[in-house]
Amino acid sequence: MLIAGNWKLFKTPSQAAGFCRELRQPLDDVSEIEIAVCPPYVSLTSAIEVLAGSKVAVYSQNVHWAENGAFTGEVSAAMLRELGVDGAIVGHSERRQYFGETDETTALRAKAALEAGLKVIACVGELEAERDSGETETVLERQMIPIIKEIGAHERLVIAYEPIWAIGTGKTATPAQAQETHAFIRGLLDVPILYGGSVKPDNAAELMGQPDVDGALVGGASLAAESFIGICEAARQTVA
Ligand code: PEP
């Protein structure tokens, strides 16, 4: 069970340090699950410093596939490793929607990150219109194929199923919808699968209690210590 907090474009280095100090002690008691925070690039070092020796891992929100080169604005897996980063999110729907991320570039980023020794959370998910028109499985299969071809099952690879209509909207997939969709994804690739989309302390236990839900990728509710710790506690109770 992994609970990862995606901070998106929030928390400066000093804010990240203060927030990680708040998380550190309460989360040291939550020993049965894995926990990660995903700060913006510039705040990675302060999170790593404050969380050193704690239970909480630090992931980046993206990573480039090249080792180095003429790729202005990008960051490589080796650079992140040197900083002490444990893993990376790739293919988040906001990267796909606003920055031209594709199924193929998502797989390239995931592959390079795994080869460099990072853990990877690769995100997939359908639009509301795609779910409404019965295309969810077709869309997910299309997104998963490059990952399956480029990588396949890997011990450091995790998929995050994030229905786009549930991200930051307060609408959550029902536990039954999450379970059904996770079972479909697991049929394509047998790796741990996180659910993401408006996970909160009060819906986490039911979602995390589904047999094919192996954790959560949390956006908004990961920005406040109380709600992030509450979600980690709820997840812990489902594995205890
Ligand atoms: C996310 O950013 O991956 C996410 C799931 O956001 P939220 O929890 O705010 O819906």
Task: Please describe what this structure looks like.
With 240 residues, the protein is α/β, with parallel strands linked by helices. It has one domain (2-239): TIM Barrel (Alpha-Beta Barrel), CATH 3.20.20.70. The chain has helices at residues 13-28, 44-51, 77-83, 93-99, 103-115, 128-132, 136-150, 175-188, 201-208, 225-239, and strands spanning 2-6, 34-38, 56-60, 87-90, 119-124, 157-161, 193-196, 215-218. The protein has an 8-stranded parallel beta barrel with strand order 1-2-3-4-5-6-7-8, surrounded by 7 helices. Helix 9 (201-208) links the parallel strand 7 (193-196) and strand 8. The longest helix is centred in the first third of the chain and has 16 residues, at 13-28. It is globular, with a radius of gyration of 17 Å. It starts with a strand and ends with a helix. Residues 6, 8, 162, 167-168, 196-199, 217-221 line the site of phosphoenolpyruvate.
Search tags:
alpha/beta; binds phosphoenolpyruvate; 10 helices; TIM Barrel
Structural class: alpha/beta
The total domain count is 1
Radius of gyration: 17 Å
Question: Stretches where pLDDT falls below 50 for ≥5 residues?
Answer: none
Q: Main sheet, how many strands, which sense, barrel? A: 8 strands, parallel, barrel
Report how far apart the termini are: 11 Å
User: Any idea of the CATH class?
Assistant: Alpha Beta
CATH superfamily: Aldolase class I
Mean of residue pLDDT values: 97
CATH level-two architecture: Alpha-Beta Barrel
In the sheet with the most strands, the strands line up as 1-2-3-4-5-6-7-8
- The global form is globular
Q: State the share of residues found in helices, binned by percent.
A: 40-55%
Tally of helical segments? 10
